[in-house]
Amino acid sequence: MSERGLFLLDFQRKILTLQSDNKKKMNRQELVKQIYTKGSYLCVGLDTDPDKLPDILKNDPEGVFTFNKAIIDATRDHCVAYKINTAFYEAMGTKGWALLERTAAYLPDTHFRIADAKRGDIGNTSAQYAKAFLHVLPFDSVTIAPYMGADSVQPFLAYEGKWGIVLGLTSNKGAEDFELKQLAGDGGSRLYEEVLRRVSEWGSTENLMFVVGATQAEAFTRIREIIPHHFLLVPGVGAQGGSLEEISKKALNEDCGLLVNASRAIQYASSGKDFAEQAESVALGYRSEMTGYLLPRIRKIGREPI
Question: Per-residue confidence at 304, pLDDT binned at 50, 70, 90?
């Protein structure tokens, strides 16, 4: 059999294995263990844009996958999670979906794997979205848009050992259009606060997280009053200007409770041949800073980070 034939056969076997034997579960206890073992709550985003690949890969038919593999290999020791933004792959059509599958298969199951798909629809449709990302593909979690209410979110929470990550307060300017609106007759409460309250009742701290943008740092104290024990997925550190220090001081809880995502700052740290080495350097920098914020908690439980 040709080298290409062997590659395709191996790839098919991997996908079948993912579909039929996706046994590894990243529950809260395991996630917290990984965080405190590494002294890191870094999530690396894989928002891979073919137009931004390093020059040495731009004309390579396997460029996107080669790039993703290199970023994963360079950062895996410094992060506890990976987040694949599915839009960047869907935009490439069937080729992109195949790249999504291959990249998801390459992610180490020692890490928390997030499908950043922002799905949410009527119940039977959400059930299919949940099946796609949490059963067919090897993701531990998927991001969810909660606008359509409980029956659009609950199918994602039905998978044992899997997580739904619901949009809470986002970092984009459009958050002012709905999320930050004050509700009439509710003591000045904002819409996103009601979303956090209501959605937190649909699941538990074992299967439900919330997205809160890093550029909304002034809101973290209030958010922790509403959901003190849930994990928060925090995008917007790095290229978007969010402060890791400010977020950590306001939002860390007893189990850490944070996954702070950095995408462009790590992926595109260099456009040269040293892109992987520079990605590792940036990831290490984030990890080192995070270790400093975690040290009081790490010493309390008697574990030094590796």
Answer: low
The tens digit of pLDDT for each residue in 209-256 reads: 999 999 888 999 999 999 999 999 999 887 677 899 999 999 999 999
Question: Which phi and psi (to 5°) does residue 166 adopt?
Answer: -95, 135
Tell me how far apart the alpha carbons of residues 288 and 306 are, in angstroms, rounded to a whole number.
11
Q: What predicted TM-score, i.e. pTM, was given to this entire model?
A: 0.90
118 an active-site residue? yes
Sign of the CA dihedral with 187 first, then 188, 190, and 193 last: negative
Gap between the Cα atoms of 208 and 205, Å rounded: 6
**Which of 118, 162, 181, 249 does the annotation list as catalytic?**
118
Q: Kind and range of the H or E element at 46?
A: strand 42-46
Q: Are 151 and 124 in contact (CB under 8 A)?
A: no
The neighbouring-strand residues paired with 115 are 84, 142
Domains delineated in the chain: 29-301 (3.20.20.70)
Distance CA 63, CA 65 (A): 6
Residue pointed to by tokens 């609106």? 181
Bridge partners, 262 (sequence order): 44
